[in-house]
Amino acid sequence: MNATELLETRITGVVRAVTGAGKPELVPKSRLSGPMPWxxxxxxxxxxxxxxAGLSLRNTVNSAQxxxxxxxxxxxxxxxxxxxxxxxxxxxxRLQGLPGVTSLRLVPEEELDRLIxxxxxxxxxxxxxxAVPIPAxxxxxxxxxxxxxxxxxVRAALAPVAPGARVDAQSGWLEPVYDAIASLQWLAIAxxxxxxxxxxxxxxMAARSALGTxxxxxEIVHLLGGTDGQIAxxxxxxIGVDAAGxxxxxxxxxxxxxxxxxxxxxxxxxxxVNHGSLGPADWLLLAMVPVAATALAMVTARFTVMHTxxxxx
Amino acid sequence: xxxVTADEIVQFDNVGLRYGTDKExxxxxxxxxxPGSFYFLTGASGAGKTSLLRLLYLAQRPSRGMIRMxxxxxxxxxxxxxxMLRRRIGVVYQDFRLVSHLSAFDNVALPLRVAxxxxxxxxxPVSDMLEWVGLADRMDARPATLSGGExxxxxxxxxxxxxxxxxxxxxxxxxxxxxxxxxxLRLFEALNGLGTTVVVATHxxxxxxxxxxxxxxxxxxxxLADSTGALKNxxxxxxxxxxxxxxxx
Lengths: 313, 249
What we know:
The complex is a heterodimer of chains A (about 325) and B (about 250). With about 325 residues, chain A is an alpha+beta fold. In chain A, about 70% of the residues lie in helices and about 10% in strands. Chain A has helices at about 5-20, 30, 35-70, 80-95, 110-120, 150-160, 170-175, 175-215, 215-225, 230-265, 270-275, 280-310; strands at about 70-75, 100-105, 135-140, 165-170. A 4-stranded antiparallel beta sheet of chain A has the order 2-3-1-4. Chain A is rod-shaped. Chain A starts with a helix and ends with a helix. In chain B, the strands form 2 sheets. In chain B, strands 3, 6, 7, 8, 9, 10 and 11 form a 7-stranded mixed beta sheet that branches. In chain B, helix 3 (about 105-115) crosses helix 4 and helix 3 runs parallel beside helix 5. The chains are: A alpha+beta (about 325), B alpha/beta (about 250).
């Protein structure tokens, strides 16, 4: 026997030991199979999709928070253009000398126009419209987090040179969005927990049903000297094979759905959702779902069977 | 309560059995089974033969009394130690109780598999046993495709394949022709000759004559009785009381 054949034999031996393949089972396999692999496939698919959504939302929040954590926006709200420009210039000079400011820029007027264009329209062809004064904007990046204290310090520093300055932490604007996303994350976690419970309940019912169907066989095996562990092992192995098969199908389905939705969201081009893509660690976590589902199904089946067998003599 | 010696395979002491709140189906049973003895358990229908056998093969605990088997107290024995006792007992059920999804071969191999034998180790003895009961050509047949007599032979092969210390058979010849009945009794006798204690429940009086060295336990309305209806312990020897091994006097 060469090395390849030896390896194949050993792999086959391990697979048979785990799945019981090739050995006549004490309990007929078909009784435990039926819809179980499909139920498990659906559960795993839904769990993976819910978990992927939760991870994606987490990534979105983390990415947005990292970018905006030290960000400040200074608006110079002054209707007179010359005064607005003078205060913006003074504020710029004052902020340059302020400790903890890592970057600073006056947002160009063209960029401002582009920002407000969706709401107010463009200048072109609207000569008769009354011009709306737009505040001057300064984009400030602090070395540390833009806490309420830091915002107050900046506000106090600007008050003498730019009385029209309004200082806001950029992260504050997105606070309601973060809250909403956090709620969605909790929803995703709750869904994963519910699906875990549903999977356990499905396996429990399947195991009980199989025990009831095969009660006579189990009694015979008991009377032949079979142990609870031997009988539970048969059910555990059978449900494990079902769960593994269903888990693989469910995971494949969920991956297709997740990739499809990921592309659709990426197509939106919105800054916030662009940061919600899944990393390698996230995919690894998702790949653990069918493994965990299989383990959970096997443990549930064993616990259920052992519990029921203990009531028999 | 009498002393149990190492020579006693089974000892019943004042055993009673009732199902639920009904009246006792077995009452005040006290007897001892000795290694290497051959017992017939007789009695009319409803006398309690099957109930007594269920106690013997540990499918049932009594409502009262004491049962010792192979030196262990079968009443207080923890559940996890029951399998080891059960592996020492072969059972032929009246309704065969073959596992329907397994072939004749796998049904016969079941006690060996349960005891941990590998496929390689069990192939030969199982094939030999099936050949002996005349089913060499039906090894792969499922029970549903076997006749009543063939199923009974598979059940007997399954009961004796692991060379049990005690064989308990409930009407084992009920579904076989007279020739096969004699052949099966010869198998039981052969096993008995190897030291296995055999207990055969039957209402066939002709069968009793075919094993002249057997002992008879007669049940009457749930009580063990001799010809006068009194309790009997140990069971009455039918013939050849000097046969060895038998119960010590």
